[in-house]
Amino acid sequence: MAGGGSYDTFPKLLLRNSAQFGTRPAFRHKDLGIWQSWTWTQVAEIIRAYAAGLHRLGLREGDTVAIVGSNRPKLYWTMMAAQVLRAIPVPVYSDAVADELAFVLAHADAKLVAAQDQEQVDKVLSVSDRLPQLNKIVYDEPRGLDGYDRSRLIAIGDIIADGRTALAAEPTLGKRIDESIRAGNGSDIAVILYTSGTTGAPKGVMLSARNCIDAAIDTTRFDRLTDKDVVLAYLPLAWAGDHYVSYVQGLVAGYCMACPESSDTIEQDRHEIGPTFYLAPPRIFEAMLTRLMVRMEDAALIKRRLFSYFLDVAQRYGEQVLTGRPVPLSGRLIYALGRWLVYEPLKNVLGLSQVRVAYTGGEAIGPDLFAFYRSIGLNLKQLYGQTEAFLYVTCQPDGEIYSDTVGPPAPNVDIRIAESGEVQFRSPGMFLGYFKDQAKTAEAMTSDGYVRTGDAGFFDEKTGHLKVIDRAKDVGRLADGTMFAPKYLENKLKFYPNIKEAITFGDSREFVCAMLNIDPVAVANWAERNNVAYGSYHELAGHPLVYDMVAKDVAAVNRSLAAEKQLAGAQIRRFLILHKELDADDGELTRTQKVRRRFVAERYAPLVTALYNGAHDADISTEVTFEDGRKGKIAARVKVRDMQVIAPAESLGRAA
Amino acid sequence: MRAPDTNEILLEVEGVALAFGGVKALRDVSFNVRKGEIRAIIGPNGAGKTSMLNVVNGFYHPNHGAITFKGRTRAKMQPFEAARGGIARTFQNVALFKGMSALDNIMTGRTLKVRRGLLWQVLRYGPALAEEVEHRRKVEEIIDFLEIETIRKVPVGRLPYGLQKRVELGRALAMEPDLLLLDEPMAGMNLEEKEDMSRFIIDVNNHYGTTITLIEHDMAVVMDLSDRVAVLDHGVKIADGTPAEVKMSQAVIDAYLGVAH
Fold it and tell me: Which ranges of chain B have pLDDT less than 50?
């Protein structure tokens, strides 16, 4: 196992970076329209002052500090400063509603909350009567907070300034900070990351500094990341993906974390920064492709022709060119032309021109979606990971990319398949346990120290790569014994730009049915071009022409299923389009935007019944939660559409 | 928290009358605006609200009466003098440069603050450059304040109405006015846009301490926002006071709901 040497905590790494890459940028943040930067030396000085200030506010070793907000340097600095004092940062999903927030803050015993702005401060204050241990709230954006109770609220900028003055005045304080850094060791809990909770309440995953750093050393070597790299820190702070890619790898490799201006400007900011390493869950790649396709629809005829012609070329040769396999000379030439005319401009628009390594993870990615990005020359790879592993369990090495596997074990990760088919692993970044939950920790581990993933999978014989089929408990069989892997079907459906979300049913049923969410961007654009008038999402979703269009997509999925022997029986016989978008505020999605299948099935039980009893429409009334936490009801009549089943093709299955 | 309400009078309108031929738009209207307050002028359609604003910032010259702004009384004032004096305004129908970006539109609000002459500006060198950087910083602060970062470079003509209104407010703020006149800032907006706009108006008042006079016919909005409300009907002031007082006034109820004859 690669050792972190004497740099076994993040504060020590910070000092190392300040000494080694002192003048290189550590953070960038677009503020007032300009990218502001801080070098490692500047950051080290700020963190020292910030830690001193927090110490004066009473933050001590072992205390927990919750961090609520989007990706801002000052919030990342809060994590660093807390770690300097050997306190434990706990990032929390900033879009959590007040109740969810209260649960995590109470469970984590947060003494101090660092909030981004008034919105987050308000949320914390609204539940503060349930948080007796909460002492101070510190904030980044002062706007709108003028009239608030000063005894509990302090601006982060003021704490840093106060710390700086105090450090200059009392040398003992500086000594105490230095001692705290020296005393820190690898077995300290570096961070607690709360899982988004696909099932049940969030659990606090405790990670040690040594484990985080060891894991990140392995992966930075694996992808040859250096201080010359740049990432855009745009994913939720509380997600293991962001913490790993932005914070931990950033400190280990010494590269620059660029924070976007606001969550609405990410596209533009990505374009301006040009990250070299990029991690995104499949839905973001999906959304990018959808927007791209929508814009192409509006483009001039010649551009559309060029685009579709060269996309075909890319499909034929792109993958081979990227992995360096032999390609005929004519193919090479035409691909080169395509690169100049289409692929590079396309990547530039998406802000991906500089990307050397891109990963997708968190969920399975549709094979066609994956192939699209690779064919235009983006080195997109899959990783399979978990918060409990501190991200990487497997990842695909350059040159060995298959869309249907997630790659061989990541460096120093030990994977085995249990008899039940469950994937189990041991990894350098492995968690220490769930915070204050011995029972759950014991459930998640085997007696010999492997972590249970809860996913079903196997090693592909040809490549030796891991194939993850689905959540072990989600894979089922139809009444006639055909295998039913819901995720697999859903990903096929979701590849169509019109379909944003899909939930399939079929376990122990006669046939497969689907509930769909249309993509408002794509379908609204289509409606505009086809003079389809509508007043609301609900009306658009129920429009007969929209049903016709979506039915074509479902038919296409059925055709592709017909070509696969084991799954031909799992074609979608009936589907409906939901009258509202699935939403995390209603508990239908997790905060990482994954569908909570069982919850949805229960909530829309009348619709599921209608899918299976042959009815042509069904009434549904559901409670919805608005962004400010108020609740309301929406009722609708949802139509059900029948589909033709396509006879299995004469075993013309794609070669794997 | 509001900027401290002093009793210092910023604007005093005394006995103003305005007629267009035989039409009497305003008849002997008097009211004042205190420093740091949000002052509303409301009234049914055709009550003379916009005429009143136009008189204050010099578009119209009253036939009678006097206007005292920051202690200086004038019968006649040109719009540019009003602007120099620190009065900024927005319009009922958005009046922006449609082909220019949001950023450039707000930059035009800085015109009066530009100190260097044309030659320097053309050269974009030395002090002129430093000055432009300073203006741009100020404008970026406003963009941040109004949360319109995403549309910074978008031509204004392509923006939805609610955002255009926000850009217009941004341009008025760029003048760093002492008195900000808003002509129906919520007209034609949906509920969500109205709530956003109300929040920005309160924020402007709190954060910059700007005195605001606004015209609106949406009563609910006005009552929540304003410190004091003056009510006009057919060119006559029929009530003046706090929102609670105005709401109780019989004259106002009659004007809005009509009187049975």
Answer: 1-4
